[in-house]
Structures are given as structure tokens and as C-alpha cells.
Amino acid sequence: MLTYDLSKRGKAPLYDYLYQCIREDIITGAIRSGERLPSKRTLARHLNIGVITVTNAYAQLLTEGYITSVEKKGYFAADVSSYRIPKSSAPAPAKDKTEPDYFADFKANRISLKSFPMTAWTRLMRETLSISKRELWQTIPWNGLFILRRAIADYLRTNRAMNVDPEQIIIGAGTEYLYSRLLQLFGPATTFAIEDPGYKKFGEISQSFGNPWKYVPIDDAGLCIDALEESGADVVHVSPANHFPTGIVMPVGRRIELFRWVNRISKRYIIEDDYDSEFRYTGKFILPLYAQDTQNRVIYLNTFSKTLVPSLRISYMVLPKKLLERYKKTQSFYSCTVSSFEQYTLALFLKRGYFERHINRMKKYYRMQRTAILDAIRRSPLNDFSLVTERKAGTHFLLTVNTALSKECIKKRAKKTGLHLSFFDDYRHAPCCEKNVQLVINYAGIPKEKIDGAVSRLAEIFR
Fold this sequence. Notes:
Blueprint: H1 14-28, H2 40-47, H3 51-64, E1 67-70, E2 74-77, E3 104-105, H4 118-130, H5 146-160, E4 169-172, H6 175-186, E5 192-196, H7 201-209, E6 213-219, E7 222-223, H8 225-231, E8 235-238, H9 252-264, E9 269-273, H10 289-292, E10 298-303, E11 315-318, H11 321-331, H12 340-351, H13 354-379, E12 386-389, E13 396-401, H14 407-416, E14 419-420, E15 437-442, H15 451-461
Parallel strand pairs: 3-14, 5-6, 5-8, 8-9, 9-10
Antiparallel strand pairs: 1-2, 4-11, 6-7, 10-11, 12-13, 13-15
Helix pairs in contact: 1-3, 2-3, 4-12, 5-12, 6-7, 13-15
């Protein structure tokens, strides 16, 4: 006879607790498959409960398939052996996988989070939350809030000499997301070209979408146009204002060659990635290809992740009007991936001049940071066997070290000294035959008080 201590049910309804007890016995095999259960009246008398309680418990077990009913014979336990889960030890509690605690991270291309105008941003966010605009609570347009697209268009006109209609701007959560939309827009029959060396992740994204891509070499003037022509590519991804990791600025002669290439065949396009172009420490800003394009063949990409904070995943692209119509027909069913509150706050941040003032402050800060780390290298033993190559832009430079040490040996020594290093070869597709080691020194996220110590540890690696 089934016997259960119903006083342990707590706040659970009596029928529900009885149902749970019988179900557990069936699952664990305490009640064998095909075994006949007591009649409702018999079990009720045995447990000193009402028949309706047993009726409700049996009904739930019957509904879920733990028991079967045979007319005039009663209720029988069903075969649920395939549902039994073998007992095992409890899994270990999940650990928070935090990043290693380096003394100095020269690899991460981070920004100085301390310099972010948190007070102003928080105030604007509170203002946004207090606004009772319907557009903040409704479904976001596929291309983003108009107020942000208009603010970006105004910024591009005054700071990048780009005449852009807000309708041409599409907001997305990161340039990688927008790049994936472009891959889908052009389709798998389109071949993409990517600079070598360059940002490898775009090649990986292309591969995941099944789009063919080609690595095209660069020289001191940027992308080699002859090699681009030979690659058979239809679309090319370039960073003409500040190539990563070399920092090369594409001169006007090479830009003219690139425009000749793209205008030669109607299906060709240029994807201009203007990432990190705001941080130039001498002279005027570099005019984007988009502003020089007369045939509407340039797609412009940029992000706020580097200029503000990485967690603010707001990027945008500007499409030529003809390509925009194609995008509307084939891609506009995708929802905008950035919340309306962040978009509205960023729009206020741009419109009220906070962004421009922030860029000016950061340029001054990074200029001082750059000077401090270059001075530290000149004072250190590194100066005797290394060469700095930098273009007075961005937040990194190249350090060529005359050493016989292997890359793996350098990595191991760096780890022991608490440094995280980035190698130029990491961004190269074609094999390198150079004997010296080239490091990509990202200095934006190195605290000022750690610069001398970081450079001293770097020099120790090569001793």
C-alpha cells in the first residue's frame, strides 16, 4: 500500500503533494511499470484524506502519462524507464571567467574608461527615461531612431565633410553586425577583398557566411590596386584614414587608383571602415573616401565603441542611395539591435556638443599618453635595439625589436612579467620572412603610473 507523510507538504495543495509523491515513485522505479495502483477509495481511507484529493492526483498523473486507466480494472503505472535520469554528483558551481590580471595589457585596444564623461551621460540617460515620447516605447524602426540618425548626419557634415541624408544611415550593435548584414545583402556570389595585414575578424565573418574573400597585400601607400584587380574581388574593405595595425594613411594618388578600380565595373563597391580616425594628433582630419566619391560607390562604417566605451555597442553605416533601396527590399525585416533609450541618449550627447568636447579631451589625453610611453622607451635599454614606427594617430604604434628570441619564447617571458603582447604577425595572412620581431603596442588602456614599469618589464623580456 502506498504510504506518504502528508504533513511534509508545506504550503503545497494536498492533491498536488500526493501527485508529486506518486510521480517520484514511478520515475525512480519504486512503483514498477505495470503495477496496479490502489483504488481511489482504498488509498483515501489508508491516508485518511478525501476521495476527491486522490481523484485529482490520479487525474494529473493520467494527463501527464505517468499512469494508465483500464476500464473496470483500475489504474496502472506506465513505463517511464526511458525518462529516468541516472543519479550523479551535483555539478561544480560555475566560476566567473574574468580576464587575466596583467600588469600591463599592450594587446587590448582599449580606451581610458576614467575619461568617459559618466556624469553627463548619466544625466542624459535620466532625462531620456523621464521623457514620455511614444517612439521610445514602440518598436524601433529597422534602421534606428530618426533623432540619432539625424544627429549623426549633422556630425558627419560638420566634422567629416560628408553630405548624408539621415535615411541613408543604419544603426546596429557593432560594426561586425553591420558587416554581416552587408555580406547577406551582396550574397555568396560576391567576392570580398580584405587588406593584408589587417583586421582578420572580417575574413572570419565572411567565411561563416559562405562569402568568398581574398587577402590583398598593402605597401607604404595602402592597398595595392594591381593585386586587388588580380584578386577578382567585387567589394573591398579598406581603412584609408588610419590602417590597422600599420597606421598608414592612403595618399590621394592611391585613392584615385582605388576609385578607378571601383568605377570600372558597376557591381563593385568600397567598404570604408573609419574606425579610430578621430584620434589624429597633428594636422587636419583625413577626408573620408565617402566625401570624395562622385559615383555613389562607397559604404561608410564607423562606431562609437572606441570613442566612448566598448559596452556602448552602437555603430552605423551609410549606404549609397541606390544600394539603400536594395537593402530596404532584402534586409529591412531585421529589427534594429540597439535599444531606443541608448539611441536617444546618444542623440542628445551628439546634439548638445558633449561628443565633440569628449573627443577633444581624449585627443589631448592620448597625445600625452603617447608622449609618455615614447619617452619611457627612449630612456630604457629598449632604445638600443628597437625602432618605433608611429604615424601620430590612433592609440597604438609598432615596435620593431632586434632579437633572436622566438615568438613563443617572448610570449612566455611576457606572461611571467605580467605583460600581454600583440604581434604584427597576428594580423598578417601571408607568411612573414622578417628576422626581427614587430610588436603592436596599444597604449590607450595603460595607466599613466604604470608606463615606466611596463616599459621596464618589456625591456627585461629581451635581455
